[in-house]
Amino acid sequence: MLTTTPWYPIITDSRNDDGEMTMPLRNEQGEDLLTTAESAAELGRSASTIRTLIQQGRLNVERPDARTVLIPRTELDRYRRESLGRPGRKSDTPTKTAKYSRAYRARKKAQPQGQQGEPPAED
Prior knowledge:
Helices cover 34% and strands 11% of the residues. By secondary structure, the protein is α+β, with helices and mostly antiparallel strands. It has a domain at 8-84: Multidrug-efflux Transporter Regulator, Chain: A, Domain 2 (Orthogonal Bundle). The strands form two sheets. The protein has a four-stranded antiparallel sheet. Strands 2-3 form a two-stranded antiparallel ribbon. Helix 1 crosses helix 2 (47-55). It starts with 9 loop residues before the first strand and ends in a 13-residue tail after the last helix.
């Protein structure tokens, strides 16, 4: 008899701390799989933000069918390590505009006070 692993996640029963029945999903490697809503709650983000991260390719997911999106817990841990806690963080390298602004301010500061706004003298 030939045995194969199923293409769908393996579902196992368990109970949470309150004794309620929960059904954690696991993939073939034994990793916990979370839904978009569960992932959002764990990361402290909204479900729409999680969907955006998936569309941008910043979170890798498993799709057992066309409508179901499951996120491995290891993927959430990786995202948390690499990205979370630094939203909007400024880059260490200045942008082209920042370089131009810095050079402009340096030129303005270097000009003597009387030369600001005066047209060049004609012969």
